[in-house]
Amino acid sequence: MELIKPGTNFDFIRFRWIALGISWALIAIGIFSLILRGGPNYGIDFSGGVMVHLRFPQVQSLNQIRQALSSVQLGDATIQDFGTGGTEFLVRLPVTSSETQGITDTLTRALEQEFGKDHFEVLRVELVGPRVGQELRQRAMLAVLFSTLLMGSYIWFRFEFRFGVGAAVALVHDVLIAVGALSLFNYEIDLTVVAALLTVVGFSVHDTVIVCDRIRENMRKGGRRDTMGTIINRSINETLSRTVLTTGTAILVVLSLFVLGGNVIRGFAFTLLIGFIIGTYSSIYIASPIVLWMERSPARR
Amino acid sequence: MTRQSILYRTLLILGLVLVALIYLVPTFVTDLPAFWKNYLPSQRIHLGLDLQGGTHLVLTVDLNKAVENVLDRDIDDLKREAAAAKVPIETAARKEMQIELSLGASTDRNQFTDFVKEHFPNLTIQNSSTQDGKATFQLGLNKREEKRLREFALEQSLETIRNRIDQFGVSEPIIQREGDQDIVIQLPGIQDPQRAKDLIGRTALLEFKLLSEIADADSYTTGDKPLPPGTQILNGAEVDTSSGSARGHRPKYLVQSQTLMTGDTIADALVRPATQMEGPYVALEFNARGAKQFDDLTGRSVGKRLAIVLDNTVYSAPVIRERISGGRASITGNFDIKEARDLAIVLRAGALPAPVHVAEERTVGPSLGQDSIRQGLRSFIVGGSLVVVFMLIYYKFAGFLADMALTLNVLFLMAAFAAFQATLTLPGIAGIVLTIGMAVDANVLINERIREELRLGKTARAAIEAGYQRALPAILDTNTNTLLAGAILFQFGTGPVRGFAVTLCIGVITSVFTAVVGTRVVYDYLLTYRRLQTVSV
């Protein structure tokens, strides 16, 4: 079976300006969404606070839970249905001081009074103090930044400087769009999402390496006859079958994680899904054209 | 390709499969025979807290408080010894982590400086000035002393918490320090996280103080009259927890500020069961020094009321009827048996040198863990099958080989988890699922290359050789990159995320091996022994 027929010669490079427009549009939509929502939607890990994940045997309404919590002074609790049609809820509370000892206890006691001790279950409690939240946020940003630089340098070291630049720009592009998509679809950015972003970075470079590897090979083979544009185009076409297949299988498993993996890792799976698609696209339409542009820039000739 | 090389590689792979299976047996077989336990690995795959349920805590020890406690004690000592040395101190009080102190009008400041140097080598004078003709000083702990104190307080907190958890009874807890003020605690599979947290986080400072004997003590505890010097108001424990309405009513006590004795001399603390007269209580037994102190204390204060204060809460304040020798005392209150048991534990394990705050908590109930395992497994099976079927349809025989490689890959990955005792977390399971999707990449690269070579009209043997050879650089480069990403993830992540990073890295290594070495040997066998003419790819 063949999805991409041999001899396929699609002129990718010709559409690079349109692609660039699409990329900017996607980034702009993401940034617009971020601005509208007043910044990234950080989960407990990064914002700090308390999150309690509850499960009820019977369907409850948000109001019933809100009522139960109104008897205790706990600050601005936000209550969210956890996508199971009224049986699971997330209750979130801000943590303002380091006095965190009693918060979850107070909360569960209030629920016990309203619903009875055995009529609900605390599935998960996450509490992140302000200091830890800040530390984690810093570490996450450093990790994304550092991995982008490291990946770029690796490609530079293995190939050429411009390939490295192309790869690094593509990575920044992927992360920006993924973060924008998270905001647009209202997913929280938590630790697992950052892990997914780093995986996307790895995956995207993966693709870029394959294309670059082929470009280098064809540059050696092609000699002086072909223009860089032709070589890049041919390389993308020759690896297209592999690109489609690998991305395809990767998306297949990520889809199964997204659909079947449960709510706890849905944001993680979503990030991978968007990231893999964008990552594949960016190795073709961001990384490769940059290699081409840097070839043409007079400074490098 | 020599026949010998094929044989060796086949044996290597079969050997690895055997080892992997041996490592996996304990995870899937519950009753291991005795000989297995003696001679073969018996560790199971270790599940993270998010899968088996449990509590992950990061406690911050308030080390500033430890410093402040020492300074408070120094103030008392300073006053006393200064009086003995005839250095007139007019006022002395602690302000944050400094002692502010002023001398009488006509005092020579050098005299005081010498006095501090001689009697309080742990203090340094950080600042001095003259106000209204009086010399004032700011003293603090000197740097080395402060560093030693912080280190000691953290170590002691760690030790105390470890003691408490040991006595509470949690299987395989992890308790370790992190950085210079945090303690990380992992309690797998615990049923009542709140109780454990209360037990661990409690300072458990036991103090004995005398109740103030001022006649109208009540007027101080109810109103806001300025307190008589040397006294303080402490809350009592909650009265009568059984009747709901009285809950929250806490009596107040006016006590003398001076602590006569602390709980550091407790040799043992035992729960005594409830009697008809009263609920369960905790019986204390002092060591020799404590017994002597308690003997003196009670002897001096017959007829007075002794407040038994735990973490600034008065549990009871009985009247001392007679001198108590023999070093025994008891703490009564409105405990149920669990509370009494926990109280005994903290008293036995000793007080924390400084209060602790919960900086991070992640608790996962057992049922969510079960759900996660089930959901993870389901997406693994569905995602995996889709990939396997797809490869089979797309590449036929070569796809079958890739699927075999994939199966071996999962086998090796799981075995590596058991062998290295890596922790499997929910993101880790996601990582395994992801590895399946990405591990086929190596075989896709190889197969595409073989197809290309075949199109150029090469023979089966030449196409296969060229395919593997030319795909290899790309395979190595891409996987090195994923390893780098994994390493960064590991560096950055904690707990579950680390589990993901570990899965990713192990998966990369096993997938390169199975895809490149594993499938190749089959081709070589077919080419050499079966005179393979055409490649089904």
Would you kindly provide a written description of the structure presented here, covering whatever features stand out?
- The complex is a heterodimer of chains A (301) and B (537).
- With 301 residues, chain A is of the alpha+beta class.
- Chain A folds into two domains: 13-42 and 133-300, Up-down Bundle (Multidrug efflux transporter AcrB transmembrane fold), CATH 1.20.1640; 49-128, 2-Layer Sandwich (Alpha-Beta Plaits).
- Helices cover 65% and strands 8% of the residues of chain A.
- Chain A has nine helices and four strands.
- Chain A has helices at residues 16-36, 44-47, 62-70, 103-115, 130-158, 161-184, 191-222, 228-260, 266-296, and strands spanning 49-55, 78-81, 88-93, 121-128.
- A four-stranded antiparallel β-sheet of chain A has the order 2-3-1-4.
- Chain B has 537 residues and is α+β, with helices and mostly antiparallel strands.
- Chain B folds into three domains: 3-52 and 366-529, Multidrug efflux transporter AcrB transmembrane domain (Multidrug efflux transporter AcrB transmembrane fold, Up-down Bundle); 64-146, Gyrase A, domain 2, CATH 3.30.1360; 202-363, Gyrase A, domain 2, CATH 3.30.1360.200.
- Chain B has 15 helices and 19 strands.
- In chain B, strands 11-10-16-15-9-12 form a six-stranded mixed β-sheet.
- In chain B, strand 5 (123-131) and strand 6 (134-141) form a beta hairpin.
- The two termini of chain B are 21 Å apart.
- Classes of the chains: A alpha+beta (301), B alpha+beta (537).
- At the A-B interface, helix 4, strand 4, helix 5, helix 7 and helix 8 of A face helix 7, strand 18, helix 11, helix 13 and helix 14 of B.
Shape descriptor of chain A reads elongated
Major sheet of chain B: size, sense and barrel closure?
6 strands, mixed
Provide a count of the helices of chain B.
15
General form of chain B: elongated
State Rg of chain B.
35 Å
Q: What fold name stands as the CATH topology of the largest domain in chain B?
A: Multidrug efflux transporter AcrB transmembrane fold
- How would you state the average pLDDT of chain A, rounded? 86
